Structures are given as C-alpha cells and as structure tokens.
Amino acid sequence: MPIWKLHGNGRTVEPGAVVRPDERLNWPATIAVGVQHVIAMFGATFLVPVLTGFPVSTTLLFSGIGTLLFLIITRNKLPSYLGSSFAFIAPVTAATASQGMGSALAGIVAVGLLLAAVGLIVQVAGLGWVDRLMPPVVAGAIVALIGFNLAPVAWSNFKLQPLPGTITLVAVILFSVLFRGFLGRVSIFLGVIVGYLATVLIQVTTGEQLIDFGAVADAAWIGLPTFQIADFGNPGTWSVIAMFLPVVLVLIAENVGHVRGVATMTGAEVNKQTGRALIADGAATTVAGFFGGSGTTTYGENIGVMAATRVYSTAAYWVAGAAAIVLSLSPKVGAVFNTIPAGVLGGVTTALYGLIGIIGIKIWVDNRVDFSRPVNQYTGAVALVIAIAGFTMQWGDFQLGAIVLGAAAALLIYHLGNAIARWRRTGADDGGPIPAVGQLGGDPQ
C-alpha cells in the first residue's frame, strides 16, 4: 500500500487542487473529515437494518469492517465508504417473512460471492461485456423497479402514524432544498431527527404511546453486537436466493459509478480499480451476510462529502471505518435506533424508495434513451408494472418475486426484442441515444 504523503501544509487545500487518495492532511484535519464521513453515511446505513429487522449494531460493525476490507483490496487507492445497500431491502423483507433471517442472510452471501466473481472477470476482461448485457435502458429499469417495488412497505408504515410520517417527509424535502452543501446531502438523516423529535412532542402533549424507551434504558453502554449465521441448510433458502440475484446488477452500477465519479476528480488511473472495487464490495457483502450484517455498497453520500471538502484521501476512510466499529460496540446506540416510530420510517421511506426509482430514471435521462422505439418502451414499461404490482410466480415451494421477474423481463424483452427487430428490419430496435439537437438543458447561451 502507498504511504500517504502530506498535502501542502497539511491544513488547507489550495484553490483548484484536491487531496488525492495517496495524500492526507494533518491528522487532526483527517480525523475531522473522517467524522464527517461517519455522519454522512449514518443516516442511510442505520435505516436498512431498522427497516429489515436486522440488528443495527451488527450492521454498523460490518459496515466498518467492510470499509477497511475495501481499502485493503483496492490497495488504498480508491476512497470509499461501504454502507448498507437499499437494494437489499425488498428481497430481505420477502425472504425473512417466508423463510426467516437465516435464509435472507444466505441470499446476501450469494450476492456477495457473485459480485466478487463479476469483479474478477472485469479485472481480466474489462467492463465492455457488462455494458452489452445491461445497456442504459435495462440498467435504469432494474434500478428503478427495485425502488418502486418497495412502495407498499412505505405506505404500511406511514398509515400507522400519518402525522409523524407527514412531518418527517416534509422535513426531508425542506432540508434538501433549503441547504446547500453537506447539510443538503444529509437531508434524510436530518428529516429522521425532526420526525423523531416531533413524535416525542406529540407523545408528551397527547399522552399517546408512540415510542417505548424501555429497551434503551435497559441496554448496556458497551457490549458485542448480536451475530447470526447464514442458513444454507434450510430447504427454503434456495427458493429465495433467486430474488436476490438482480441486486448484483444494482451493485455493479453503483460501484462503477462511484469509481468513475472519483476518477473525474482525481485522475483517470483510478478507473483501473473498477474490478478490485467490485471484488472488494463482494467480499464485504459476503462477510456481512455470513454473520448477520446487511449487504454493502459504495455510498454516494460520501462522494458528496469528498466533493464538498475536495479531500479524497483514503486516510479519512480508515478513520470512518474505525469509528463505525467503535459505535457498533454500544448496544445502547442500537437500542436508540430501534425506537424510531413507524410513522417516521414511513415518511422517510416514502422519499427514499421513490429516490431509488428516480435514480433508475436518471440513468435513462443521462444516456438519452430513445423511448420512441418499441423495444425500449416495453423493456421499461413491463418491468416497472411487474415491480409496482408485486407480480409473483410459484412452483410448489419455489417462488419468484417481482424483482426477479421484472429484471428477467427487462433483459429478455431488450435482447430478444432487439434480435427479432433487427432480423425483420422493423425499426423497433434500440437505435442508441437520441441525437443531441442544440443545447441539452441549462440556461440559453
């Protein structure tokens, strides 16, 4: 691993300059940036275990361990924090309900192993085959359907406590538009805090029991997280693993996007770490799944912190990973997060799940997908309706959920439809991005 060189005077970043991955500021400044990364990741990372029923402390532990593992595998050349991936929420929720948490953990392990295998192939063969398998219209559909498939889950929580849910949702939106920079990027975290405090106030003024603090009082300040081993012995496990496999495509898109984002700011050589990034995230997800943690992914929130501070030093991420591990050793911290009311979760997930869907649509917009072509129309349309409606297919004990069916539909319609349209020369195939005519967006020049 490279040794960090001190950037400039170690205290400031010159105008137009960035602190590269192999550089660092002085240690007090590096620790301060690392703490910012912890705050940025916290809002999203704790929500996944709260929503899926996983232990918060265990997820934090493996989030920190996964980050350090990522830095080791990428040879300390790629700054990234590995937090809980929202792409796992739908399959974990379904698997836990039907077969139990052990089977859900086995699904997470399967995703991690497959992602690591893809990373090995990318390291040897490059990314071209991924782009051919999953062009923008397919990638966007798969990312979007995972978010929209969760809409009923958000409503099931929101309707239990509509007032706290509404306050939380409004707070999330207001924070995102009122503030620029770091505060705007952690609007979800701040919205949860506002919703939580509002719920406490409602409970005090009305006497209605909305939050139970008993578990917080009973929890110890220091203690080991709860561990659970992935269950591959349950016959039902293999019937739920299939619903986890589309998550691999989302993690590939997130990791590739992360690497390219960092490369834009620090240098194109960072792109050479793409294969290692996929291997590292796969390894971190596998380890977490084996012992009771949530699946991981690179975090856009932390890219925001790097863009705001212009500090891309991996030293800050060693600080952040270590801090997450320390936080995980307090059961009281986990107990506090487990008291978050259903209404607050409903409010924040109404925004959050919708944003996952919008990320998929943004892939379409950024790549100027031509939706005048029938193949592209049906690739997106069928996949999204399957996800939103919650289609399922079952053969005995084996069931395929909406995410699997929607992803399979997107891949089949696109590739088979293109083959037929090009054979028949009907013009229904994907003709590539819409040609740019004049300026795309922004103020007139």
Write the layout of secondary structure elements.
Blueprint (H helix, E strand, L loop, with lengths): L4 E2 L16 E2 L2 H19 L1 H6 L3 H18 L8 E3 L4 H11 L1 H25 L2 H6 L2 H13 L2 H8 L3 H17 L3 H4 L1 H20 L7 H5 L18 H5 L4 H21 L7 H18 L4 E3 L1 H10 L4 H15 L2 H7 L4 H25 L7 H16 L3 E3 L2 E3 L1 H23 L21
Parallel strand pairs: 1-2
Antiparallel strand pairs: 3-4, 5-6
Pfam family, one: Xan_ur_permease
Protein name: Pyrimidine permease RutG
Keywords: Membrane, Transmembrane, Transmembrane helix, Transport
If you had to describe this structure to a student in words, what would you say it looks like?
This protein has 445 residues and is mainly α. The protein has one domain. Helix content is 66%, strand content 4%. The protein is built from 21 helices and six strands. The strands form three sheets. It has a two-stranded parallel ribbon. A two-stranded antiparallel sheet has the order 3-4. A hairpin with a 2-residue loop joins β5 and β6. The protein is globular and about 70 Å long.
Order of helices and strands: EEHHHEHHHHHHHHHHHHEHHHHHEEH
- Separation of termini? 47 Å
**What shape does the CA trace take?**
globular
Biggest sheet details: 2 strands, parallel
Helix percentage: 55-70%
As laid out across the biggest beta sheet, the strand order is 1-2
Mean pLDDT across residues: 84
Q: How large is the count of helical segments?
A: 21
**From the alpha-carbon coordinates, what is the Rg to the nearest angstrom?**
22 Å
Total count of domains: 1
Q: What is the count of β-strands? A: 6
Structural class: mainly alpha
Beta percentage is under 5%
